[in-house]
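Q: What structure does this chain adopt?
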Amino acid sequence: MTEATKSAKVFARLRQERDELRLQAELGKAEFRDEWQELERKFQKLESRVSGAAKEARESSEEVGAAFGLLADELAQSYRNIRARLG
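A:
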């Protein structure tokens, strides 16, 4: 499996979790709004990075992969934290 395929799968999983949590957060508590807005900003940054992969192909693939991995891990952990707090 190529790095691009792995990244696409991770991103798809994050998008699905984000969509599910967005609905729960909209129906849920106001306390999540600020945190959610910050996560949305980070998700958009990740989405931009994925969609701009061709441009970034000129960079070291290790740098791009490491940056993607860090941001994806941070988003995944934050989504898990919100899901746990939502009950």
